[in-house]
Automatic annotation (TrEMBL):
Membrane spanning residue stretches: none
Official protein name in the record: Rhodanese-related sulfurtransferase
Species assigned in the record: Medicago truncatula (Barrel medic)
PANTHER family to which the protein is assigned, alphabetical: RHODANESE-LIKE DOMAIN-CONTAINING PROTEIN 7-RELATED, THIOSULFATE SULFURTRANSFERASE/RHODANESE-LIKE DOMAIN-CONTAINING PROTEIN 2
Domain Rhodanese: 117-238
Basic and acidic residues composition-biased segments: 302-311, 320-343
Signal peptide boundaries: none
Gene3D superfamilies in UniProt: 3.30.70.100, Rhodanese-like domain (3.40.250.10)
A Pfam family annotated for this UniProt entry: Rhodanese
Region (Disordered): 48-72, 302-343
Length: 343
């Protein structure tokens, strides 16, 4: 079986997800790291049982029962490694923030509990609301963002980096610009110690670079992200609550990176629980309680039509993903042969 998955390349680095036998994945990684600029990549491995691997190999990576199966808009939907060139690995929209130039201090999973248990540490979940909804670290602050682009604005508001009293001080004739600058400097000196985390540690590199540019002095981030923490820290010692959303067909994982209990709403790509799927607002491939009200009837009808095509041709998961059923392929071949003979 060949390696499948997706890779993002940007001036600031590389990120991706690969699936395949160990031998095939190692070949791809060796090729990538043959470039001196890409050596020393951090890796997170998700375990696959021999049974699951056998199923995966037998169906060319498209078994619906495999936790690494192909699915719509996941890293494993293709029959090859797809490479995308982007301006940013994760879009923040601030070119001046560069994780290449500076990032916060990495903290390993085994030291993480001690750091976030300190009452003087502000723990921030850098992920978006559909991810934080199903799990986060105990006591973490949730910015409730819908995209990473909203994070800088949240930082400004949460830590009052543009304080009105300082702005008024600049306008007041009784205060000089020096006094205003002094107040702003004092404010930055009292910014708290911050510990941030995300799924695999990628977003945190850019987020920590942003905070450092804003005057924060102590900025830490979880090395390897939540996935590395769930892999290394035993459940009995863990401060993680819930499950971790992942961007592949598994949807969510638990401790030990075991597949979680959430499914994916193909209408909005958000995780849904068994309870969510019992809601009258849930319709497979169309909507769920989190997107039902935001979708027009026209959008729902288009989704239903799309879902019928998926079910007819087996696009979401299954060995016939993206291909017509075998008997129709055979029929088409016969018609083509007959046509060639008649010509």
């Amino acid at each position: 079986m060949s390696t499948i998955g997706g890779i993002i390349l940007a001036p600031e680095g590389i990120n991706g997800s690969l699936c395949g036998t160990r031998e095939s994945v190692e070949k791809v990684l060796a090729f990538i790291q043959s470039d001196d600029r890409l050596k020393g990549l951090r890796r997170i491995e998700s375990p696959v049982s021999p049974e699951e691997e056998a199923i995966h190999q037998g169906n060319h990576g498209h078994s619906a029962s495999s936790p690494l199966a192909a699915g719509e808009d996941t890293p494993f939907r293709w029959d090859h490694v797809r490479v995308k060139l982007k301006k940013e690995i994760v879009t923040l929209g601030m070119p001046t923030v560069s994780p290449i130039e500076r990032v916060g201090k990495y903290i390993g999973p085994k030291e993480w509990n001690s750091l976030i248990s300190d009452p003087d540490t502000v723990v921030i979940d850098v992920r978006n609301n559909y991810e934080t909804r199903i799990g986060k670290f105990k006591g973490a602050v949730d910015p409730c963002t819908t995209s990473f682009r909203e994070f800088p604005s949240w930082v400004e508001e949460r830590f009052e980096l543009t304080r009105k009293d300082v702005e008024h001080a600049k306008d007041d004739v009784n205060h000089s610009d020096q006094i205003a600058e002094k107040e702003m400097k004092n404010q930055k000196q009292h910014l708290p110690r911050v510990a941030m985390y995300c799924t695999g540690g990628i977003r945190c590199e850019k987020a920590s670079s942003l905070l450092l540019s804003k005057g924060f002095k102590e900025v830490y981030h979880l090395e390897g992200g939540i996935l590395k923490y769930l892999e290394e820290v035993p459940e009995r010692q863990s401060l993680w609550e819930g499950e971790c959303f992942v961007f592949d067909k598994r949807v969510s994982v638990e401790h030990g990176l075991a597949q979680g209990n959430f499914k994916l709403c193909y209408g909005c790509k958000q995780p849904v629980s068994d309870t969510d799927m019992e809601s009258p607002e849930y319709e497979y491939g169309v909507s769920c309680p989190y997107c039902f009200a935001q979708k027009s009837e026209e959008e729902k009808e288009r989704a239903r039509a799309r879902q019928k095509q998926f079910e007819r041709w087996g696009i979401i998961g299954g060995p016939d993903k993206g291909r017509r059923p075998t008997h129709k392929q055979d029929s088409a071949s016969r018609d083509e042969n007959q046509l060639s003979k008649s010509v």
